[in-house]
Design brief:
Chain lengths: ~375, ~100
């Protein structure tokens, strides 16, 4: 019997060694991203980093734990020689320097930035793309000139339909350039900025130094980084990242089924949503009073309430909302809870916006896994105190 | 004696089969490393869990974007086997704090 145990141990050790070797194939070296705390690494080159939910329990998300999404290799952009080209339907083409941008009136807008694919890992069947959980989102204060003021420098035709933005990043081989068009109406919104700062600091390279488009309420894909080109146009750019990329079915079909490209529409504002961030899914907690916590936001709308269930949705209680109640930002929610006995509890959160729209119970499956906004759900094991 | 020879044959053919599978996996891994790492690290692939049909769509998209693939079927077989939607999701990879 003893020998069997030993051989089983040896087999386990051999299995562990081969598993370690398998991991080594992808690089077992420790990843450190300069300027960042410990993050969930979906991709280290270029960096696609998710914030663990523990970082999200504060109204402003610090830069050093703010999520990062990059489509293309990260460009190195220096302060010296940087110019923003203004072209298209403008009175005169212009190359604007950073000192000129800093001379324009500066505005600070707190706003949630959320990746269009946040929550993609929760779709079933799974879809290709960065497998984000809850943390491809954060709330920061963005500072810089208004896009409208920048466009006026070049005498732009403000009746044109679109402003197309390109950044300094370029695709390798034949990978399409990341170019996005923004409806002029949104570009002229006083909250739409070209940010030079994030939470009062100059934008770090990972977040788009020196200039990032801030499009409050809209999906993260609209927030172009390293912006060095704005063109005022009558038609939107038709490159990959406008079409067919970042589009959502007008009429959702069965999960897993392909969608006709003509049935897809460009994504703009984000839907109402909430996430549970005070505990991770599957966490163990000792029996006793505890505070359930999370975040909720509603794109261009505002959060009216967050309801929380601790009994798999049988009963719901309205959570307390804290944090500044400003358009484009999130609210923090909290609910005191005293589980009566040990056991496994399914905790749900559901936000409703001021227009009465609430999170659906089931996510709307779509081929690229965008706009996940189903009721959030975690499991908690409440354990007896020993 | 005959029984022993048969057993030896069975075990030999089994080990050849296993070796052929190992060789194919090794070649697939190499194909992955050669084709995909110009633009991004392999972590992006490791975290995916897709059907064979979905992998085919992704690989063809990347070929359209200029990825050089020597043996498309070899790469597809490797991806479909190792990063299949029937394989449990990968554990998250955490970076170490830079602070």
């Amino acid at each position: 019997m003893k020998r069997v145990l030993h051989s089983r141990r040896a087999a386990l050790a051999a299995f562990a060694a081969s598993a370690a070797a398998a991991r080594g194939f992808e690089g077992s070296e420790q990843i450190i991203v300069p300027g960042k705390r410990s993050m969930i690494v979906h991709n280290d080159r270029p960096e696609d980093l998710e914030s663990p939910v523990a970082y999200l329990n504060q109204w402003l998300t610090p830069v050093d734990c703010f999520f990062v999404r990059q489509h293309l290799p990260r460009p190195t952009v220096g302060e010296a020689g940087f110019e923003l080209k203004l072209t298209g339907r403008v009175g005169k083409e212009l190359n604007v320097t950073l000192p000129q941008l800093r001379q324009l009136p500066q505005y600070t807008v707190p706003a949630v930035l959320e990746c269009t694919g946040n929550g993609r890992a929760f779709f079933s069947p799974r879809v290709p793309g960065v497998q984000w959980g809850r943390g491809a989102m954060g709330n920061a204060e963005w500072t810089g000139p208004r896009v409208s003021d920048v466009l006026k420098l070049a005498g732009a035709d403000l009746n044109a339909a679109y402003v197309t933005a390109n950044g300094a990043d370029n695709g390798l081989a034949k990978t399409p350039d990341f170019i996005r068009s923004l409806a002029m109406k949104k570009a002229l919104d006083p909250a739409t900025l070209l940010a030079l700062k994030m939470n009062g600091e100059p934008l770090p390279s990972l977040h788009g130094f020196p200039l990032r488009l801030i499009v409050p309420g809209w999906d993260g894909t609209s927030w172009v980084k390293w912006v060095n080109y704005l063109s005022v146009d009558q038609a939107p750019n038709n490159g990959f990242y406008m079409n067919p990329g970042y589009r959502f079915p007008k009429h959702p079909g069965p999960p897993g089924a392909p969608v006709n490209p003509s049935d897809l529409a460009v994504i703009e504002d984000m839907p109402v949503q909430s996430f549970i961030t005070g505990h991770t899914d599957g966490a163990k907690v000792p029996l006793g009073p505890l505070t359930l916590k999370g975040v909720a936001w509603a794109g261009e709308s505002r959060v009216a309430k967050v309801d929380v269930s601790t009994d798999s949705g049988l009963t719901w209680q309205t959570a307390q909302l804290t944090g500044k109640d400003l358009r484009f930002t999130w609210r923090l929610w909290a609910l005191e809870w005293r589980p009566q006995q040990p056991g496994y509890y399914t905790v749900l959160s559901r936000a409703t916006d001021i227009d009465g729209k609430a999170q659906p119970l089931v996510p709307t499956w779509n081929p690229s896994g965008y706009l996940f906004n189903a009721v959030d759900r975690i499991g908690l094991s409440v354990e007896a105190r020993s | 004696m005959i029984k022993g020879a048969v057993l030896l044959l069975i075990s030999l053919s089994a080990s050849f089969g296993a070796r052929a599978a190992d060789d194919k996996a090794e070649a697939g891994k190499k194909a992955l490393e050669q084709s995909c790492q110009l633009c991004h690290s392999l972590r992006l692939i490791e975290s995916q869990r897709l059907s064979a049909a979905a992998w085919q769509k992704e690989v063809d998209k990347m070929i359209g974007w200029g990825t050089v693939v020597q043996d498309r079927q070899l790469l597809l077989d490797y991806l479909s086997e190792h990063y299949s939607n029937t394989v449990p999701p990968a554990a998250p990879v955490m970076s170490a704090s830079s602070k």
